[in-house]
Amino acid sequence: MNISRREFLQMLAIASAAGVHLPGMAKTSSNNKPVNAMYDVPKYGNVHLMHFTDCHAQLLPIWFREPNINIGVGEMKGRPPHLVGPHLLKYYNIKHDSMNAHAFTYIDFVEAGKKFGKVGGFAHLATLVKHIRNSRPGALLLDGGDTWQGSATSLWTKGQDMVDACKLLGVNIMTGHWEFTFGADRVKEIINNDFKGHIDFVAQNVIDNEWEEAVFNPYVMKEMNGVKVAVIGQAFPYTPIANPRYLIPDWSFGIRDDKMQKYVNQARSEGAQVVVVLSHNGMDVDIKMASRVTGIDAILGGHTHDAIPEPLVVNNKGGKTLVINSGSNGKFLTVLDFDVRGGKVRNFAFSLLPIFSNYLEPDKEMHTLIEDIRKPFKQDLDQVFCVTDDLLYRRGNFNGTFDQLILDAAMQVQDAEIAFSPGFRWGVTVMPGEHITREHVMSQTAITYPTATLTRMSGTDIKNVLEDVADNLFNTDPYYQQGGDMVRVGGMKFAIDPTKTIGKRITDMELHGKKIDANKKIPGGGLGQCIPSARGNPHLGYRRRVPGRQRFSTH
Ligand SMILES: [Zn+2]
Questions:
Q1: What is the whole-number distance in angstroms between the Cα of residue 163 and the centre of ligand 1?
Q2: What domains can be seen in the chain, in order of their start residue?
Q3: How far is the CA of 177 from the centre of ligand 1 (A)?
Q4: Which of 174, 365, 369, 531 is 20 to 30 A from residue 500's alpha carbon, by CA?
């Protein structure tokens, strides 16, 4: 995209006019419209895209608290997505106490949640997608992946619930990450059967080990109002490291920006006037890629769950690329309009719309499908374990209250002195006073490799694990970051300096108020292979199952 500074300022003006800052409005029920007026996004231009990502299989409206800590190191310090709470509000000029402040930050979460209600839900999202499509016939709906995983029903149906829901929603194109944890055969089965004629699965950066050929279509070309639009897929580059390699033994992943450049050029030579990348890189990786690869108009990204109210404009040798990340858990929908004339993008309008469930009537057909999906599992889903006094949440670089609960359980059940749980960014929030149900617990733990492990670890082992995970999170080169948060730790304490380099970040490890000995072995519990995968190797030896004590069963 070639734009001048004046044009860029115009774009920002349009972006704001298009509804980035939502006014507080009456609920839908009071004006008898299925969609609250705050979702009337004025149509702009002639190419229209919608994007959601990382819904993590949340079909129903939920609570979801955004992070209170998101540290950026090196060049990433102090810029999106590493701004949270009041800093984010200030940067984007969002009013405190507004609906947007609640959508984009953790501030006063409980009070604001009670005021504005739950977020997301596929039936509500479906209503909004239809509403946007009414004014923009032919608009494409892009799904950034992490769609088939994150709930009890998605695990128990091997992703089928989400596949059916996405088809009904009218998703046109998707890429993936956690999808691959159902195994290569299941992924292929869905793409070759369910998706055929409905949804294009694209990923330019996945090749087979033997022939080095593309496993999926690298990109797809669509035509809208006479304009050719190429959508190139970028699956999560670190899938076999962050998740078990044995699930996808024949596929090789990577960032592969040389190949990305090749496909951008190829799409342009085939007549694409708009080229966008549907990415599951994580936002810092997207930003670096946008600075290196030329000819991309926009990267629509996910994986790191960043809800960014306005696009970042990244300069590169060929012009400018917009970097957009659309949050997580079904909480947001991006609407991106391009004005394309004379063979290129002249301008754009952008909105990241929070899905406030009370302000959108549920779509009837989608509501019925969700009911049907849940019916056989209803009793299990609704099983109540206990009531929480405190807010339970996950997001934050170092710990979350729901993680703490899981760690306490892992230590108690396994008689471990310390425990580790992966720094997942998915998992819903539970309000104080609410029942904790099996469905809530599954929203934190529903994975296809749920092994609970117990092993004896020395101080040196523990430090190595923490150092490796910290380097995945705080490496100053985004191309070495794998997303997620720091591994959650129970029972012990440590100090961390994210600005140091690998081997030097973690100090002062303590257990029961005493320094942890480098050589003395301590019983440590681990969940979901968090320890081995953190070291980039799923077979490091933390695989001894505790007989009869597997905490999180797959039903
Ligand atoms: Zn992901």
A1: 17
A2: 49-64+119-372 (3.60.21.10), 65-118 (no CATH), 382-534 (3.90.780.10)
A3: 5
A4: 531
